[in-house]
Amino acid sequence: MSRVGKREFRRCGIYCTLVILKQTNNEYRIMKISFKFLSVALGLALLLPGTPGRAQVYADSSTQLDKYLVPATTPSAAPDAEGFLGRWLLLEPISKPNRSNTVFTDSYIREAFAKEYFKGQRGDELPKDGAKIKVTVEYQPPVNLQGGRPSFSMEEPKYEEKKVKLQWHAMDSKRYNVKLFRFATNLTEDRYGVIFWAATVVNCEEDIPNVRMAVGSNSASMWWLNGEEAVILSGDRRMVADDVMSRRLTLKKGRNVIWGAVINGPGMSDFCVRFVDEAGKPVKNITLTTK
Known about the structure:
Distance between the termini: 64 Å
Order of helices and strands: HHHEEEHEEHEEEEEEEEE
Structural class: alpha+beta
Strand content: 25-35%
Shape: globular
Oligomer: single chain
Number of strands: 14
Largest sheet: 10 strands, antiparallel
Helix content: 10-25%
CATH topology of the largest domain: Jelly Rolls
CATH architecture of the largest domain: Sandwich
Number of domains: 2
């Protein structure tokens, strides 16, 4: 095995390993067995349902919104069995063209989310379910989905500012993660190159100190609790439960307002949020509303 092969292995992982192991017939057979083993392992991972600490997988290709999200019809909701927050007020996606997710540095997403798209953004009072707002966006034509996959032109497209009308929706997630991509697919043509805004209210009967907000998102996102930044997730990332945790926070008695913003380019979007105590156990003695 050459030095070049070793260096490539460190940089490129399994793909270079396969090339290196293909040098002799005997090792070629080993390569095929190893590759099949890894393929089976990855295939099994794709079939596993989303659970805390595991990367979210998109094996389920159903586009029916009610498989993932349904309108909120009760005054309040409880976290699920693992403490994940399922009731959210979601704004239809804001067009924000990005042909790659590699641009999502801390400074980029802070600037993107600092722009005021609507009145009351990150405020204490939440918009009403069904409320419609006018937003100025960088308009982009619908993505070409012929063949079942998004197709992008090699030429840099030109975008123009345009005012669009977007609506807020109070929704309950049927899964631990909120499927923003499916939400967008059923309501609008904007599903790639977008910003999603989400908000919810956590109600507590007493102060709950020393908790951490645990968040996963695809792709980058920021989250605020009672007007203060709690978590930032930058870079091109898959949704992993409890991917990033905040510093110690206090959920105060009464209303606690959470705002979140998720940005994505050419990919699927989702997120999950919960609070955990100092022992790492989910906080469940709370209720969720969108008022």
